């Protein structure tokens, strides 16, 4: 495994931080997830739906390949445990409000004094500095403030959020990238460092070509619904029996599509001959194609597009996406067993497989999303605590 032997102390909760550490865990790192006694990560309660052990399905999406321990970080003995774990860890990931862990004596300066090589990744809504640094930030809020909501939805509607918490997921992926870069930097220099990641920054970075369009034109980007601001035709169309997605990426593909449709004249029309012309004459181009597609079934359209070498596909529901033969071939559904409390039975949990495919190192699914505190005794024993000490900590509400 690429990250076998790397130890991660995960002080994060909800999605961005846990998603980043799950990526590291899939690559082989040992992830110790610290949760609040009796409550755990907020997402354990974000249901329905719930698993049969009454853990919200939401929690399972970002917490496999982790060991869960419970600690009340407001208690001194719990802080001592964190410092002991930090001394043995390569990476810390946290998403507390700015300064909150510093007040507890668990900030970067505190833990780097114990372990100078530690890589400490802080994930916040707006970053460690700036006028909004102290403000909390959830994905929905950042989608709104970071411009994404303004470009999502139909032109005649108000802006809407994306159907999944993409800002959190963007940030989780950026965190994994930053951590891997910091590991390489430490390998070369021996130095750890503090990574300051903001959901707001990550959302702005993911505006990508939309941001570039604004930089160049100074025109406020609009909502295009299922259309594309820079490419035509690149949107959904209706056939005689269903809707489908068509993604024509260049003039060659457009010409090939028109040839297969038996409408070469469309490709030769000066209004549609180039992508720039098609963008300028978007409505006319879309209208001409829609009239043709309305006479065909979706199967017929997809067969035509396949012959033309033009990307096109059905608009699948989530269940259809995961039961697609391609998803099966790519092993994108993972089945894992979670041991139940006080019985010999196990609960089967399904999670989305990792998209990372390597020729040499492997992605592994060693640990199902854990029960709250499932590994507390195991991890503390590794730190040198005996059973009597651990039992006392349980009685005192530390664990």
Annotate the secondary structure layout.
Elements: E1 7-11, H1 16-26, E2 30-35, H2 57-60, E3 66-70, H3 76-88, E4 91-94, H4 100-103, H5 108-114, E5 119-124, H6 139-145, H7 166-189, E6 193-198, H8 199-205, H9 208-217, E7 234-238, E8 243-247, H10 251-260, H11 264-268, H12 275-280, H13 282-293, H14 298-308, E9 312-314, H15 318-323, H16 325-329, E10 333-339, E11 346-352, H17 376-382, H18 387-395
Parallel strand pairs: 1-2, 1-4, 2-3, 4-5, 5-6
Antiparallel strand pairs: 7-8, 8-9, 10-11
Low-confidence stretches: none
The CATH architecture of the largest domain is: 3-Layer(aba) Sandwich
CATH overall fold name of the largest domain: Rossmann fold
Question: What is the element string, with H for helices and E for strands?
Answer: EHEHEHEHHEHHEHHEEHHHHHEHHEEHH
Give the radius of gyration.
Answer: 25 Å
Instruction: Determine the number of helices (DSSP H or I, runs of at least 4 residues).
Output: 18
- Strand content is 5-15%
Largest sheet: 6 strands, parallel
